[in-house]
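Why show two proteins at once? Because comparison is the fastest way to build intuition. When a single record is shown, students tend to memorize it. When two are placed side by side, the eye starts asking what differs. So, the first record is below.
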Amino acid sequence: MNGYERIKAAINNQPTDTTPIMLHNFWMAVSEAKVSMATYRDNPKVIADVFIKSIEKYRFDGILVDIDTVTLAGAVGVPVDLPKNEPGRSAKGNLLNMADVKSLKKVNIENYRYVQNWLEATRVIKSHFQNEIYVRGNCDQSPFSLASMMRGSQEWMLDLIMGEQEQLTELLEYCTDISCQFIRLMAQTDCDMVSNGDSPAGPEMVSPDMYEKFAMPYEKRVVNEAHKLNLPYTLHICGNTETILDKMLKTGADAFELDYKTDTQKTFDILNNKVCFIGNIDPSGVIAMGTPELVEEKTIELLNIFTKTNRFILNAGCAIPANTPEENLRKLIETTRNY
């Protein structure tokens, strides 16, 4: 089997010849290519070249095409900082008064240069590898996360407790339209899967009840949009998601990419044969800062748990840091291939 066939099989609950590997490694790949984050995000050819070189170097099965976590925020007018050598970030929102939600203008994100760069890079990568490597076109923020960026994280948390339901709903509807736009655009690149991140929706930020009320229904609508386009969908939420895994299943997502803070045995017990699990080795403490021996140990621990299901794709629990030693990543892949 090739990489594309392995990951497709895992998504569809079919056996594979070896555990498939799809890494969240854009920052490490940029570092190894010796280009700046500014050069990377500004040029779709550079983005594609960075991922192609990484795939050819390490020979994993699938690639998560990611650029920044503020692209959709920038597209809707949130002030964003795009550092030369780090991923983008936002410090404040653009919706300073929740009452102004009614006057938000519809945005066509296709006109935003960084969205176009992301799409073109994904198209080039898929064209290069065809059906040899599985390409997951990430689509940046889920609606709840985007709403948090538009309001600012502190203001958004207060809104959820004290805000008017009608205004909250209106903002989340607005953000759902933006997230779904990216899904539809990404589908045109011929990628094999789409995904979003919804990190502020996790239990480390909001209660399970709040997740079920304010995040899950809108995640579900984005998943439905992907399925209308005949694309499988992955949902990523940071932190320990153990208390909301049952609610996440209601989104209809085909796969969950979960943080290393989520207990893997409990995850297996809850998700077994219901959805594909992607993850979840500690990207910093183990993959970046650990020894090759520790990487091997933690990889085997994870493989021992998920060897009983077809629905498993090995990955880090979040983005792999730029300073990750090559020998550690090679040990991760070698251990998985030889398991």
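Second record. Ask yourself what differs from the first in the token line.
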Amino acid sequence: MDEQRHGITRRHLLKTAFSAGGALLFAPMINLGRYQLFAHSSTEYSARAIRLVRESVVVDMLNPFTLDFPQMGRWSIDPESFTAAHFQRYQESGINVFHIAVGTGGPEAYESTLKFLAGWNAFVAGQDERLMRIDSAADFARVKKSGKAGILLGVQNSEHFRRLDDVDYFYGLGQRVSQLTYNSRNRIGNGSTERRDEGLSDFGVAIVERMNRVGMAVDVSHCGDRTTLDAFEVSKQPVLITHSNCRALVPGHPRCKTDEAIQAMARSGGVMGITGVRMFVKADEPTTIEHLLDHYDHVAKLVGVEHLGVGSDTDLDGYDAMSLEANQRLRAGYKGSYGFREKIDIEGADHPKRTFDLAEGLIRRRYRDADIRLILGRNFQRVLSEIWRQPQPPETPSER
């Protein structure tokens, strides 16, 4: 590879590496300008892939930060227990913004969501030299310049919205994205694994309208097919699929989206993030990063690369790195239609540096640099910036 042609030199790479603050090592390989990016890994990446990741504000629109929830609880209670060594792993991942949404449904949804957001707000406030909450469009540029990890507060359910005013209240607490339903039915609509496929309720329509009004993004990743399509019809703002895959490639899987839904998402101006969850990526074995890339190709060909992004649906290490007990407990929380197999992660995208592997894979699939930058983060930045424009004034009582 001609490094000068891509506007990058070995000296520039080294300077970028050391300025990133991690224990990075660029050892030049003899062939084609490939580099050993991390001192503790022998994996080689092209200069082009490295440059694209380093130049981008990389947004993972579903990454819970850690699947070790007891550890997350300790960080929330004692932010100083999140050490420089912990932070270095997030820096080295190449991800700049983490949408950390989890599902908080059930009878205590309101209280549990309050605790979830309070814990994250306490953690970010206690680690303000390393973490930064993403509240507005301008924060994307700020977080990249600062070298901090951006935390985007969202929830994978909207069951905590008991009434319309709750949307405003949780927006005030920092919530910027809300998935309408998780896998089951709530007052708003149906989830993807619910027995009957029904759409948005009247209350659900009103919630979408209020989310539009305050500037909170509507997410339909786990919604049932009819609820998904209804959201696109009702919303006056773009609607997101933050983390899902293509049912055309995994026929019958309820957590994958139909071509009809993907096309409706694009018409709304939305963006779809692709997950690296094994059973969403392919119905049988083997399942590798090449099959993951097939989903990127499918969306790009169907609606255009400007509607495509990353929503890995896992933390840095992946589900298969969880303890056996935690993994079994997680699997037990889902219906058989999820189709769990021995592994949940996929080969080639099952480690903390997978953003570089994704960039390398997109290069193999002959995506242009500009398109790769869109996928890595610019598309989600654009659509969130549009949704988060100056909120409209509160409604008067007569409008409710």
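One difference worth noting in the second protein: Residues 1-55 form one domain.
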